[in-house]
Amino acid sequence: MTDSTTETGAYDASSINLQEIHDFLVSIAHAAGQMITTARPSNSRTGSKTNAADLVTETDRAVEKMVSERIQERYPDYQFMGEETYKPGDTLTPSPTFIVDPIDGTTNFVHTFPYACISLGFTINLIPTIGVIYNPFTNQLFTGIKGQGSYLTSPLHDRERLPLKHLEPFYDENGAGGLSNCLVIGEWGSDRSGNDYDIKVKTFRKLCADKKDGGAMVHSIRSLGSAALNFCGVAAGWADVYWEGGCWAWDVCAGWVVLKEAGGEIVDANPGMWKAKIDGRRYLAVRGGEGWEAVVKEFWGCVEGELKVGME
Ligand code: IPD
């Protein structure tokens, strides 16, 4: 047992000043935003990682370098996991850990589609505890601290608490509504082959299809390209559900805090698995509101198989 671990092996977080770390991350987010908006993404400066649709730019790497150096200087004893420096086999531990995606929505960034952000998360004992997400193109800053609520600050919102609207029950008094009343977010991801891609395509079809054809007839599906901002969208109440298989802890850590603090829940993308793991790579995020468990079950009923990502 070290000075910072308890008898159970958990990290003793009582001396950590969460507000100070939150404020520090907000200042980093703004510095990163400056780098992102002044960069000129071009195809000649863009490369790919696992396949031709898994993009990375010089700016992703430069932002992560800046962020990791500033964190290392201020919090040298804490762990760091970043998208661009992650190596297969790196795992999360109970120690305080910064989990960073320098640009979430890199494909959007490359195409100048203004839905991209820096995502800065902080975990203690593997529990997402602080989240700071900043879209510098729209000047939207989403923040949250575990147990203290989550907020949106933007040109239209003066640090407003999330959700931005009253969370209606999912079903009316006659039991009508539920999934069919939902606006769903679902991403294609960059992996476009095999079992998981097949399940995604079939699941999207079933979610959208008319009820007379056995579908859920959801209001619609959005595919926007940033997991972190998708979590924030559900937290705000702009969308009801977000289903994802394939993204990573750095894509979801900060958004997890923002959503949970707004009353939302996160379960596994695969049917029947009520407990999602931060690094589990499969997520079903749902806004708060009475009846959310029934909506999760309805959604799982549309998942056409079992996603294998995260099981390897
Ligand atoms: C991607 C985005 C996308 C999600 C992908 C992620 P990146 O992150 O979050 O929405 O579907 O799985 O890889 O590569 O832009 O940081």
UniProtKB/TrEMBL annotation:
Q: Which CDD domains is this protein grouped with?
A: IMPase (cd01639)
Binding-site positions, Mg(2+): E83, D101, I103, D104, D251
Q: Which cofactors must be present for this protein to function?
A: Mg(2+)
Q: Which Gene3D superfamilies match?
A: 3.40.190.80, Fructose-1,6-Bisphosphatase, subunit A, domain 1
Q: Which domain of life is it from?
A: Eukaryota
Enzyme Commission numbers on file: 3.1.3.25
Per the record, the similarity remark reads: Belongs to the inositol monophosphatase superfamily.
**Can you say what this protein is called?**
Inositol-1-monophosphatase
